[in-house]
Amino acid sequence: MSYRSSVFFRYVFAPLLAMLAYIVILYAGMALTYTLEGEAYTSHMGEVQVCGCALGVAVLTAWILIKRRLVLPGPRWALGKPYDWGFAVIGALAILGISMLYMFAMDRLPFAPVKKAMEDYSSQMNEAFDYTKTEIYLSVLASCLLAPVVEEMIFRGCVLEGMLQLKHPYFSIVLSSVYFGVMHVQPIQIGYAIVSGICLGLIYYYTKNICMSIFAHIIFNCLGSGIYLLFDVSVKADRILLITEIASIAVFAVAAFFMARIRNARFPDELEESGDINKMLPGRHT
Q1: How many CB atoms lie within 10 A of CB 45?
Q2: What average pLDDT does the chain have?
Q3: CA-closest candidate to residue 279, choices 20, 70, 3
Q4: What value, to the nearest 5°, has the Cα angle with vertex 266 and ends 212 and 248?
Q5: What pLDDT, on a 0 to 100 scale, did the predictor assign at position 202?
């Protein structure tokens, strides 16, 4: 494959194909729920989410097993080092802190379209509180456990991993995060999803372990929404959590610098970016 073909495939075609697959999976989950519940499926959104995510996990697991069978590149699954898990936890808290600062800024912008988007976002988030208890439990199961697995397998395990083959890691992390953000559709969510994607991408790249980005994503979703749906979080506890999240931003920056410094020594077998793509991708001018 020529250089231009590789760039187009890794940076454009494969991500768009992955996004399409994700949409198909979500609609398949909706169709399955419709089959089970009939016309009343719209009142079973927790079940819709679980069905979609469960289908996603099954399909992506099969895809990964096929890739391994064919000895094709894929995400690395490993137990990891203790500091990998710590890095993932700090990363998740930092993402929450950045997201809170982002929401604070968006809420104070004087532009009518932004205010309308914020109102739509708040309405969308508050809908979950009107679910029945069963639907809330199903929604939390989907958003806090299954969805992180599906999204990380798609956007870090497939999209980012494919882009990293071109040996421009930081550009790849940012670009894959843009696709991840756009996939969230809702304008307000797009902004913090892009930033979240960058942090999750850094976690995946520095640990070279899909388990770490999945773990960070699970923590992010649990502390960002799950605990508020399941428990009556006090104002004091919420304030302590917010302070911890914002403080974690600086800690994550330092930890990321440390992880970047030791990455080459940890993974010496991986060909690092040399600055001359022609040496790594023959056929550039074909």
Answers
A1: 19
A2: 88
A3: 3
A4: 45
A5: 97
Rounded-to-integer distance, Cα 141 and Cα 138, Å = 5
Position 117 in a domain: yes
Asked, for residue 284, whether it belongs to a domain, the answer is no
Q: What is the pLDDT of residue 163?
A: 93
Token look-up 């990380």 returns: 152
Which domain range does residue 226 map to? 3-279
pTM: 0.90
Residue 11 makes CB contacts below 8 A (sequence gap 6+) with 163, 166, 175
Q: How far is residue 148's CA from residue 135's CA, in Å, rounded to a whole number?
A: 19
Residue 122 in domain: yes
- In a domain, residue 104? The reply is yes
Beta strand residue intervals within the chain, DSSP E? none
Report the domain count for the chain.
Answer: 1
Q: 279 pLDDT exceeds 60?
A: no
* pLDDT 10s digits, 56-115: 999 888 888 887 887 777 788 888 899 999 999 999 999 999 999 999 999 898 888 889
User: Which of 20, 43, 216 shows the shortest CA–CA distance to 139?
Assistant: 43
